[in-house]
Design brief:
single chain, about 500 residues, alpha+beta, Beta-Lactamase, 3 domains, 5-stranded antiparallel sheet, 5-stranded mixed sheet
């Protein structure tokens, strides 16, 4: 496919050709008209001059002067015509044209007496113009001259002929000199017009179209905040206005699409959360049924086993058998604790709620765990406020939540770790955060940490019910719990509790 030129190149090329052709044609036309006018004036002047000379020659040619004296007299009359390249006078003697005066570098330039016989019957001068009308002369040009033959009459009687040839080479030279000036004028004037036209073309056409093209590329790349200037000629301004209207329509359409996509994403997120909550509720219901069944089926026999093992320990002497009984009693107690946790998890929130500052419950949990030596080797950073608005919850269940979170934070720490406690309030809730710089939670485990029986602890160190209990306790109280964690960088659990209706308190 042939490569196309740019708009500016095309317009410049066409303007140059048209402008050059117009200037050259106009210049040549003016030059030719001037040349024609010069020739006409020269011919008219020479014709008038020769007619005057012919009238002066009439009397001498009609007189009876001797031939020698007549020649001198004729030569004296023709002396004022030095620019004639050839000049001749013929006198009618009888029926023959006799040359009386002849001056010519070339005999062919003047006629013979026999050729002039016909002028006996001609009353008007006969002119012959030889001039090349070519606009551009190439190679050798023919000689330019004007030849006139004037019959001489004296008192109505034909007495002779005057013939002269005048060179017109001077006119041709002047025309050629004017042609050079014309070409120089065409070049200079054409250059000025070309530069001015180029400036106008760039300002009114090329630059606006280039800006429109660049803006179109940016719009095609997705940047719909672009606009082009609507200044310039009416057509360019109309095109720019239409382009800006198109971009505005595209921007509005994209905004509608983005809003629709955003609403779809929100709907999908809500569906995902609803599905997750339904699955978690289903798991909770299953665990509740399981716990209720275990309370009846396992609780009573387990209590008997624990009692019998206690009696057995007291009756056995110290030794291997008593050690085995103690281990068995310990494992039975582990089973008993599991059953109690399941019962706590499945127990409906029918207990009476209280209104209190959650900080008092948190400090109670801290004191309880500190007496058990949980924070030995752990740095505890207390950034809690002096008080917080009161919340309406079951007090001992919130205590269970705080204990679970503090125990989990301590389990995640290595020696010398830090637990950072902070709190605050929003417009309608109170929050407390538990941050540690421990092992953290990998990203793929974060969606499941509040599921029953899901745990990242080593076997025997956790049963996966602590965070599930926390989630259910807070959800039943109108609150929530959220987590932010990164593997090897620690975790932050934030508890949100609904404020007591009616204001703040201490």
């Amino acid at each position: 496919m042939a490569r196309s030129f740019g708009l500016r190149t095309e317009i410049i090329l066409h303007i140059t050709l048209l402008l050059g052709a117009a200037l050259l044609f106009g210049g040549f036309l003016m030059l030719k008209l001037t040349e024609r006018e010069l020739l006409n004036q020269r011919v008219e002047n020479l014709t008038a001059t020769m007619e005057i000379v012919a009238r002066f020659l009439g009397e001498p040619l009609a007189g009876g002067d001797a031939e020698a004296g007549l020649k001198k007299r004729v030569a004296r009359l023709l002396q004022p015509l030095p620019d004639a390249t050839a000049l001749g006078v013929w006198k009618l003697q009888g029926d023959v044209m006799t040359p009386l005066y002849r001056r010519s570098p070339d005999d062919r330039w003047l006629s013979t007496g026999q050729q002039l016989q016909a002028f006996r019957f001609v009353a008007e001068p006969q002119n012959h113009l030889s001039y090349s009308g070519a606009w551009l002369a190439w190679g050798e040009t023919p000689a330019a001259y004007f030849k006139t033959t004037v019959p001489i009459y004296e008192r109505g009687k034909f007495v002779g002929v005057l013939q002269a040839r005048f060179s017109l080479d001077e006119v041709a030279r002047r025309v050629r000199s004017s042609l050079k000036i014309l070409l120089l004028y065409v070049v200079l004037y054409g250059t000025v017009l070309f530069l001015f036209g180029l400036y106008l073309l760039n300002r009114n056409v090329v630059r606006p179209i280039g800006s429109l093209l660049a803006t179109t590329r940016r719009v095609a790349e997705g940047d719909l905040d672009q606009q082009v200037s609507e200044a310039g000629p009416r057509e360019i301004a109309s095109l720019a206005s239409s382009f800006n209207a198109m971009v505005a329509a595209l921007r509005e359409s994209r905004q509608h699409s983005d809003d629709h996509i955003c609403s779809l994403q929100l709907a999908n997120e809500e569906l995902r959360q609803t599905r997750s909550e339904l699955l978690r509720s289903e798991k909770m219901a299953s665990v509740g049924h399981l716990a209720a069944g275990m309370a009846h089926e396992v609780g009573n026999p387990l209590a008997a086993v624990v009692g019998y093992l206690g009696l057995l320990k007291m009756e056995l002497p110290a030794g291997r058998q008593r050690e085995i009984a103690e281990h068995a009693a310990g494992e039975a107690e582990r089973i008993d604790r599991l059953v109690r946790e399941l019962l706590d998890y499945a127990k409906p929130g029918e207990e009476k709620t209280e209104c209190f500052d959650p900080l008092t419950v948190l400090r109670e949990a801290l004191a309880l765990l500190d007496h058990q030596g949980l924070f030995a080797g752990v740095q505890l950073v207390d950034a809690l406020p002096q008080q917080l608005p009161r919340v309406a919850m079951i007090r001992h269940r919130l205590l269970q939540v705080f204990v679970n979170l503090l125990v989990n934070a301590q389990d995640a720490l290595s020696a010398g770790g830090t637990i950072h406690l902070a709190g605050g309030e929003t417009e309608d809730s109170v929050w407390l955060s538990f941050a540690d710089n421990g092992a953290g939670i990998v990203e793929q485990d974060l969606p499941h940490i509040f599921d029953p029986f899901f745990t990242t602890k080593a076997p025997g160190k956790g049963r996966g019910l602590g965070l599930a209990v926390c989630y259910r306790v807070l959800e039943e109280a109108g609150g929530s719990i959220e987590v932010q964690s990164e593997a090897e960088r620690g975790s932050v659990f934030t508890v949100h509790m609904k404020k007591e209706d009616g204001g703040h308190g201490g």
